[in-house]
Amino acid sequence: MPESAAMMVKSDHPLICEVSLRRLTINSFLLCMTCLLFACQPAVSPEAPDTPAPAASPTSLPTPTEPAPSPTPLPSSTAVPIILEAVVWETDPVIPILNYHRFTPNLWDETSGMVRYLGDLQADLQSFYNSGYTLISLDDLLNGNIHVPEGRRPLILTIDDAYFANQFALDEHGDVSRFSAVGAIYQFSLNHPDFGFELAMFANFGDKYYGNRFTGDWWYVEDGWQQALAETIAWGMEHHVYPYNHTYTHPPLDQLADDQIQPQLAQNDERLREYLAMAGHPEYASLLSNYVALPYGKYPAWEKGRQLLTAYQNPEGQPVRAIFAAGYEYAPAFAQPSFADGFDPMRLPRMAAIPSVLKLVNDEAPNFPSAQTCSLTLPTGSPDLKAITEAITKSIADGLCPEGVYVLEEGVFLAREGSVEPFIPGE
Q1: Is the pLDDT of residue 79 over 90?
Q2: Contact criterion met (CB below 8 Å) for 142 and 338
C-alpha cells in the first residue's frame, strides 16, 4: 500500500486525529448555533391554520394640497334705494262731512232733507267726483291719514238712523242691492275707482224693524229680518261700511236724564254685537272705533251729562274717541284734520245733505287744498321712522318737496318750521 493511502486510513496517526478533532469541534459548534436559532423562534400551535398573517396596511400619507386659487372678485352690487310716494298737504285740508238719512228708489215719492231720491243721490256722487272729492273714512280723519290721489280732496259720507233697507240691503244673491243707497255708492265707486268707497252708518237698533224683502217698489218686513240685517252689517264691514253708535232709541240727549245716557249707548253697542254674532263674525267688533253721533245734534244739557257721554266705554273697553254733531243748513261747517291746530274730536261738525249744502260743498271745492305727491329716497333697509324723517328733511332741503304734512303707508309726518316729526293721533 502506498504511504499516502496509509495516512488517510489510519486514524490513529497523531496529525490525522488532530484534524478530525478540529472538524468535529466546528461541526458541533455549528449544530449548537443552529439549535439555538430554532429555539428562539415562537412556538407554533399545532391547531393554528397555516395561514399567512395579513399584511399591514401602509399608513396613508396626506395628499399634498395645492393652495386654493383666490376667488375672482365679483363686481360689488350697487345699493338700490327705496322710493316711497308720499301725499303732501302743504296747507291743511278742509273736510266736508255730509249726513244723509233715508232714500227712495221711486221718482214719484216726496223727498226732503230727510229723504233723498236714489237718482238724486247718483247725481250727488257725480258732482262730488267732478269737484275733485275722494271718500275717506272716520278712522282716516282721526288718524290723520288723509290719503287721496294727487289733485283730489277728502270727503266723508255718513248715514244716520241706520239700518233701513233703503239705506243698505243685500239682494237674493248676497250682493249689495242696487235699490239701496249703499248699493248706488258702491256701484259708482266701481266705475270711478279714484272716488273710493268708505261709509259710516250711525245706527239706532232699538227703534225699528228692518225690511228684508223688496217687492214692487218698496221694502217689507218678513220673518228672518234679524238674520238679514246681521248679514248686511257683516257684508258692510267687509267692504268698508262701518256701523257706529247713534244711541239705542234716538232720544234727544238734552232732554234725557243723565243716568240714562250711558245705558242708551251700551244697549245699542250690545245689540250690534249680537248681530255680528248672528252673522258668524263676533270678532268684527274689535274693528270698530267708539264713535257717537248725537241724536238731533243735541249735547246733554248739563255738565255731568256731557262728562258721562265722553266717559262712556264700549264693551271692548274703548273710550269715546269722537262725537259728531248733526249739522243743519243754517250752520254749515267743515271739519279739520286731526293734525290741525285746534282739532277737537268731541265736537266734530257735519252738514245735512240737502241741496243748498251740496251746492256749497261743490262751489267751495276749488278753494280747498288738494293733495300733492312727492317721492322720497331712502337708503337700503327697512323704511323706519328715522329713515323716513331723514328722507323728508333731505327732500325739503334739496328743494324737491315742500314743507307740510306727509302721509305715507308707514305713518304721518309733520314737516313744519324746519323740523320733521311723526304725528301721533290723540297727542
Answers
A1: no
A2: yes
**Spatial distance between the Cα atoms of 347 and 334, rounded to a whole number of angstroms:** 12
Q: What's the average model confidence in pLDDT over 285-302?
A: 96
169 close to 177: Cβ distance less than 8 angstroms: yes
User: Around Cβ 322, how many Cβ atoms within 10 Å?
Assistant: 20
**What whole-number distance in Å separates Cα of residue 402 and Cα of residue 374?**
9
* 328 upstream amide cis, omega within 30 of 0: no
Supply 118's cell numbers.
Answer: 236714489
Residue 138 and residue 244 in contact, taking contact as beta carbons nearer than 8 Å: yes
Q: Which of 249, 202, 186, 250 is nearest to 97 (CA)?
A: 202
Closest by CA to 181, choosing from 141, 232, 249, 145, is 232
Which helix (H) or strand (E) segment is 52 a member of? Answer: none
CB atoms within 10 A of CB 281: 17
* Alpha-carbon dihedral sign for residues 72, 73, 75, 77: positive
Collapsing DSSP states into helix, strand and coil, what is residue 165? Answer: coil
CA 197 to chain centre: 19
pTM over 0.85: no
Q: Which three cell numbers stand for residue 50?
A: 397555516
Q: For 32-38, what is the mean pLDDT?
A: 38
Report CA Rg, the chain.
49
Q: How far apart are CA 371 and CA 147, in angstroms?
A: 8
At 124-176, the pLDDT tens digits run 999 999 999 999 999 999 999 999 999 999 999 999 999 999 999 999 999 99
Q: Which long-range contacts (CB under 8 A, 24 or more apart) does 102-110 make?
A: 102/161, 102/164, 102/166, 102/167, 103/166, 103/167, 103/180, 103/181, 104/166, 105/166, 105/179, 105/217, 106/217, 106/218
How far apart, in whole angstroms, are the C-alpha atoms of residue 13 and residue 293? 159
Residues 111, 117: Cα–Cα separation, whole Å? 6
Closest C-alpha to 250, from 236, 268, 233: 268
Q: How far apart are CA 344 and CA 338, in angstroms?
A: 8
Strand, helix or coil for residue 166: coil
* DSSP strand pairing (404-408 vs 82-89): antiparallel
Name the residue with cell 332741503: 397
pLDDT digits (tens, 9 = 90+) for 193-236: 999 999 999 999 999 999 999 988 899 999 999 999 999 999 99
